[in-house]
Amino acid sequence: MALLNVEVENGKLEGILCGDGLVSSFKGIPYAAPPVGDLRWKEPQPIAWSGVKQAYRFAPAAMQLPASPDNFYYKEFSSIFPMSEDCLYLNVWTSAEKSDEKLPVAFWVYGGGFQAGSSRVKAYYGEDFARKGVVFVSVGYRLNIFGFLAHPELTAESEHHSSGNYGMLDQIFALQWVKRNIAAFGGDPENITVFGQSAGAGSTIIHTTSPLTKGLFQRAIVQSAGGIEVRERPPLAEMEQRGIDFLRAAGLTGIEEARKLSAEKLLETYDQVNPKRERWKLYGPNVDHYLLDAEPIDVILAGKHHDLDYMWGSTAEEGNSYGPAPDCSVATFEMEAKNVYRAYANAYLRTADAKSEEKVRYVQKYNMANGALARCVGFAERQVEQERRPCYQYYFTRRPPGDETGAFHSAEHAYVFQTFPRIWRPYTGVDFELSQIMSSYWVNFIRCGDPNGAGLPEWKPFTEHNHMTMELGDEVGMIPVPETPISKFQKEFIYHQLGMEEEE
């Protein structure tokens, strides 16, 4: 029977058994004090409790705007949860029968554009993953205006002269807690893998490049990182100005007044002030010279990211779940290209060759998939150039049943966690077989840094002489990296390797 009673640095915990009793769960474990009142927009602080805390239920999700029922992910992730500003909790699933088993640890960070999401999403349940001998941890962290507001007043009151990265500091505080306490659950504090999808993948990249996380974990898995913007992590000064603009638009005189607003009123104000389609761009991590000394891409290019085992991957149709762009005119496409690619816009437009609305629609449909693939391949190439540990790459092509969305952004994680029974889709035998393979690959990698194992198709790492990726779909096996002219251009743009003169 799995562990039911443990003692951590904060106090005693009692969990519950899952199903047949081979796995136990500890849900809603406070890893930091509630970030409310004077602790709003401050680094996470320690917490303790007396007696035995019953860790039976999930804690509320972080404050966020409710998903619209017509949003693709509303149905996919069942995004109706209780919410609270008091959200700094984590969950643990373990199959350990005693605390000295030293099982490998998987630390999961959910996605949602740093605007939404929760560790209580059914697709992220760790019970089935833990059955394979992994201690699974999922973490909650502050989002949107609560987690990423920067402002000169906040920077001035910080001993580190930074502000705006509270959601990331929550994750690090939780990771430090896991490092110190996971042995109580039968986990090995010297064998931790950080992984996540979408914004969770972006968070994972930040953790591999932050000076605050060095030595906290041994492996990283980046799932569906998406995006191609080269300056995706703006400097602190730029984020501070956004904070000034927000308070001004909200009619607030300063941080003191903003801290007095109820969480519900602050969220309502955030909704009123910020355009819906721009929120994910306005509030997220920044380069503050505390969490980050430089943009993560620059850290990677300099070879200063953490020396870890890496797995990176993307899906074949990353952008399908977001639907078509509202404007597919050639003029709008060209304007957006200039905003993103700036001095290289003309070169991009020549590569895209989108001279009709039909071609623009096609390019935009696969733009996110191309960008995600570009990130993966570019990182693997940097690992080779810098003579670091080779990266394992995957390319997810299976089109989940139930609709025509295809291999959408984040489609792979239900296969990894084997959570099909908790999801609405009518998965078939092919899906269950693929899920068994993928879950085994992930667990093997988490255990020792190599996904290969008995009975599995061989997964070769990306090397100087092996520019291959593992296709995970109707067929499972190594294939040449499916680069396109656009993904190659984006890869060179992201990793500053264009090798051309900037054009005016």
UniProtKB/TrEMBL annotation:
Keywords: Hydrolase
Cited InterPro entries: AB_hydrolase_fold (IPR029058), CarbesteraseB (IPR002018), Carboxylesterase_B_AS (IPR019826)
Domain of life the protein comes from: Bacteria
Ranges of residues in domain Carboxylesterase type B: 6-476
Keyword Repeat: no
Enzyme class: hydrolase
EC number: 3.1.1.-
GO molecular function: hydrolase activity
PROSITE patterns, alphabetized: CARBOXYLESTERASE_B_1 (PS00122)
Family of this protein: Belongs to the type-B carboxylesterase/lipase family.
PANTHER family xref list: CARBOXYLIC ESTER HYDROLASE
Protein name in the entry: Carboxylic ester hydrolase
Organism: Hominifimenecus microfluidus
